[in-house]
Amino acid sequence: MEVTKLSCMFKTNKKILILALFFFSGFSALVYEIIWTRLMTLVFGTGIEAISAVISAFMFGLAIGSYFAGRHSDYVRKHLSAYAVTEVLIGLSSIVLYFLITYLPNFLSSFHSGIFADHDNIVISLIYILNFLLISIPATMMGATIPLVTKYFVTDKGREGFSIGLIYGLNTLGAVTGTILCGFYLIPAFGVMETNILASIISLSLGVTAFIIDREDRRKNIFNMKVFLSKSKLNIGFLKDPVISTVLMIFMISGFASMAYEVLWTRLLVMIVGNSTYAFSAILAVFLLGIAIGSFLIGRFIDGRKNLLLFFGILQILIFICAIAPLPFWDDMPFLFQHLYNKLYSGFFSLELITFIIVLLLILPPTIFMGGTFPVVNKIIMDRTTCIGNSVGATYSFNTVGGIFGSFIAGFYYIPELGVEKSILLVSALNLFAGLALILQTKDIGMMVKSLSVIVLGTFFAFFINWLPDWNQNILNRGFYVYADLYRDNFKESKNLKSFLEDRYGLRWIHEGRIGTVAVTQVENHMTLQVNGKTEGGTFDDDMKTQTMVAALPLMVRGRAEKVAIIGLGTGVSLGVAEQFSPEYIDCIELSKDVVHASTFFKIWNHDSLNYSGLNMILADGRNYLTYTDEKYDVIINEPSNPWITGVSNLFTREFFQIASERLNRGGIMAQWLQIYNLKTEDVKILIKTFKEVFPYVSVWMYTSSDIIVMGSMDHEFNDFKGIVNAFYAPPVRSLLKNIGIDKPSDVMRGYLFGSEKASIFTRGSKINSDNYPVIEFEAPKRLYSIDAQLNNIKALRGCC
Fold this sequence. Notes:
Elements: H1 2-44, H2 48-73, H3 79-108, H4 112-117, H5 121-153, H6 160-190, H7 192-220, H8 226-229, H9 242-273, H10 277-299, H11 308-324, H12 333-344, H13 348-382, H14 388-418, H15 420-441, H16 447-467, H17 473-476, H18 480-490, H19 494-504, E1 505-512, E2 517-523, E3 526-531, E4 534-538, H20 541-558, E5 563-567, H21 573-579, E6 585-590, H22 593-598, H23 603-606, E7 615-619, H24 622-628, E8 633-638, H25 654-661, E9 664-675, H26 681-694, E10 697-701, E11 707-713, H27 722-728, H28 731-738, H29 745-749, E12 752-755, H30 756-762, H31 775-779, H32 789-799
Parallel strand pairs: 5-6, 5-8, 6-7, 8-9
Antiparallel strand pairs: 1-2, 2-3, 3-4, 9-11, 10-11, 10-12
Helix pairs in contact: 1-2, 1-3, 1-5, 1-6, 1-7, 2-5, 2-14, 3-5, 3-7, 5-6, 5-14, 6-7, 6-10, 6-13, 9-10, 9-13, 9-14, 9-15, 10-13, 11-13, 11-15, 12-13, 12-18, 13-14, 14-15, 15-16, 20-21, 20-27, 25-26, 26-30
């Protein structure tokens, strides 16, 4: 009796320990995905092609690993030992992968001419294949863990649905925890490499622990897997079962829809809650949280049910309803953000609370039903075959393959061709189709009910499509997540704010492209350019001064410049200014083709810059291009968006400045735009110190109250400004400077703040912003609504003069 009791206790405690292991397995897997995506964007750029390649490789590995591990797990007796091996290999390969990825730029630089000059598609294809191989190897082992653990854990006949829901839900909950901790704490606290090492240690620890448990299991011979699994027979032809094959195909469609939703919802939510690293982490965390909750809850209620096909169909219908229900209200969400901001905002943590509230409200309900589909599908298959590993491996791999295509097609085709609103309708139609197909397949309801279901739901959807109004893109593009403090101070009621925005801002052009939503807005007699709702340039006085001087200043100081590179086209004003100095040619690197089109609306102000004979317009990631090109420049002008924006932050690190310095000719100058609004003084010091860490000679200039220009040189101090006088009196230059209120050379010099020596004093003791420690990317969003930051920064900068 005591032995039996001891056996039960050991069995229960060991199951709890296995669940804990799989929770941390999910935790480390998401940490790896976040880190690998971050590293790969440094190698391949931040374009959607590069990011999609990384995610596709990760999901492809998961699908392959799950399928083959599931297929062969029914042969294997020591499933826990096999799981332990995969975790150890994941831990070891992740360390190797980190250093391989960081070495890739050196390796790929030998192909620079093939990539950018000759447009050698073979070389580009080889690079992406290499990316696939690097990511998919450890991802394949991650995919293998799911069927192996399930095969070991699921031992109670009749409770497979509950057990699988519990396993999958805990693993996903671990992923939620990994997303939040990695996105909010681990990387800013420890650095990218150290976080990767931490995840590797967790994987290795999981493997060692699993080995120990398996050894104890065999020694005590208490937890005998033959209780249930000895009856299993490997059914290689289970896919020939028409019900199983139908369910798997629909589950693949469901996976396609789920990942397409994630891409589409992320694009929409960026317009509402912003595109900082914290916003992206919140969106991913809530998406995974819904899946975890759904797996937990629905897995508890499916064992013993006979009508699971109908239940699966109802889940698809519920996903469809939850996906389309918010569509009429999406363009009101900015006002909800504003309302919550007015009521709750007191600092960074309250801002993240607001973000989570909005994201939870919009995407948690459908993701709960998405999460419930996994245990339901597995239970359907297990009721028709005893191959647990094969079932889990097949379902997970089919769903993941669908997800690969869903994320890829949504980003590359649906958004740029259809827009987000119509894309969500199209994807929701897949869930509706899947649900109705399953309802028609079930034998638990009569033909009358089936017919009514098709007629009612089909008619409802048709009416909904025709009734649904187009979103008010003007409101969605007003950047509430950036300008909420301004709106709060001036408007107490949403209806007054809405009237003001519609009256003041006229939307001239908008396009939802692969990179982001780009819009051109007319404000009285001025034009502004928005990307994802945030204004990136315009024709207001301060904007024109900054856009003019960031290009004119380095070219005046340098004197004659034959080759110029400009990173970030924006309105095209800076490019047009550079062209007035008649360089032999200009390489302008812009990530978004929609921004290029938008710049044509600014022809009057940018001197029709796109028609310059020496212009080479390059659609690429600026950092990625400079990494691999062998061109050398006399002047490099870096005028990206704000450093708190994910992706853009890569253009403000020490490593990027080092890359740029290597692309300068002798005597060359790099000009860097820096914001001084919404940054605390320490952040400004970090950015200047990071720049000076690479460029030994710097000078800092300020022409407006919101921006500074930092110039850097590798070989000469900025103490001779004769070039300013000489260049000033050239007719084109004098004319464009006069347009911004600069009438004589002394007006140019009035913007000078300090040089290298004082820059060293000003930044003494400050940190360095690097790829491994991206301080600004994580700190700057916390100051997004800092009221006194701008004034404090002006005082600090002028106090150093």
